[in-house]
Amino acid sequence: MPHTTDRIIANINHLMQKHSVATVADLAKLIRVPQPTFHRLMAGENQDPKYTLLKRVADYFKITVSDLVEKDLRNLPTSNGNVSGNVEEVTFTRVPVMGSAQLGSEGHWVGLDNGDGFVNWPSQDPEAFALRCKGDSMKPRIKDGEYVVVEPNHGYLPGDEVLLVTRDEQVMIKTFLYQRDGAVLVMSVNEEHPPLRFPISDVVRIQYVAGIAKPSLHGTY
User: Fold this and answer.
1) Domains by residue range for the chain, with CATH
2) Could you give the angle at which helices 35-42 and 51-61 cross, rounded to 10 degrees?
3) Alpha-carbon distance 165 to 91, whole Å?
4) Can you give the pLDDT of all 221 residues of the chain as single tens digits?
5) Which residues of 150-163 are buried (b: 16+ CB within 10 A; e: fewer)?
6) Which of 137, 144, 192, 208 would give a disulfide with 104, using CB separation of 3.0 to 4.6 Å?
7) For the chain, what is the radius of gyration of the CA atoms?
8) Cα 96 from Cα 57, distance rounded (Å)
C-alpha cells in the first residue's frame, strides 16, 4: 500500500512538528519502538507496517489508527466555534426495526417478518432500517438493547462505521479502512483488536452505519 504508507509518513511528520518532537529517533524512544524499525517506516522501506506499530504512534498523539492511516492530517479544517449561514432543519423519521443482531465475530442477524416497531432518527434514506443489538460484545460503543441505524443508500469512506455481513452469515459492526486488491480491511470498534481482512468474494454487504439509537427512541406503530 505505497500511497497509504506515504500518507502515514506525512501524517507522522506533521504530528511531530505539531507536538515539537525533534527527530525520528526521539519519537521512537517516546513510543518505545526500536529505532531501526521506526526508521524503516519513515524512510518508506516498510510498505506494510504492523498494526501494533501504528497503534503506538496513534496512542502517543491521541488519535485513532484509522485517522493516522486514511486521513491527511495536514489538511483537516480547524473550527473557530462560529456558525454561519443557514441552519438546516432536522426532521426525524420513523426508521423501521427489521430484526435483532448479535454482533461480533460470531454475530448473526435474526430478521422479523413484521418488524419490531421503529426508532425516531433524522435519516433521509428511504431504505434506512434499524437492528436491535443483543449482547455485550460491542461495549462500550454499542450496549445491549440499543439500535444500530443503517442507511443502505449512503456512501461510506475510510473511518466510517459499517455493517458488514459475510457469506457465512456473520454480522458485525466495524470501522471501514479500505478496499483494494480483492479484499476489504476493517478495524474493530474496540481498537485493542487488530484489523480484519475479508476477501470481497466472502462479503455479502457493507452498509453505512448512521448512528446508535438509544432504547428511548424506539416506538411502535
Assistant:
1) 3-70 (1.10.260.40), 94-219 (2.10.109.10)
2) 90
3) 29
4) 455 788 899 899 999 988 888 888 889 889 988 888 888 888 888 877 888 888 889 989 999 888 888 888 888 655 444 444 454 445 688 999 988 876 655 545 555 445 679 998 888 899 999 998 876 656 667 788 889 999 999 998 888 888 888 898 888 888 888 898 899 998 876 656 678 899 999 999 999 988 888 888 888 87
5) bbeebebebbbbbb
6) 137
7) 20
8) 41
Say which residue the cell 448512528 belongs to: 211
63 exposure class (CB count in 10 Å sphere: 0-12, 13-18, 19+): middle
Task: Give the residue carrying C-alpha cell 491521541.
Answer: 62
Secondary structure E strands in the chain: 93-102, 108-111, 118-121, 129-134, 147-151, 161-166, 171-180, 183-188, 196-199, 203-213, 218-219
Question: 132 Cβ partners below 8 Å, 6+ apart?
Answer: 97, 99, 100, 101, 116, 145, 146, 147
Contacts of 158 (CB under 8 A, 6+ apart): 66, 69, 70, 71, 176, 177, 178
Indicate the DSSP class of residue 47: S
What is the chain's length? 221
Please name the amino acid found at residue 9.
I
- Cα 77 to the center of its chain, rounded Å: 20
Phi and psi dihedrals of 217, rounded to 5? Answer: -90, 0
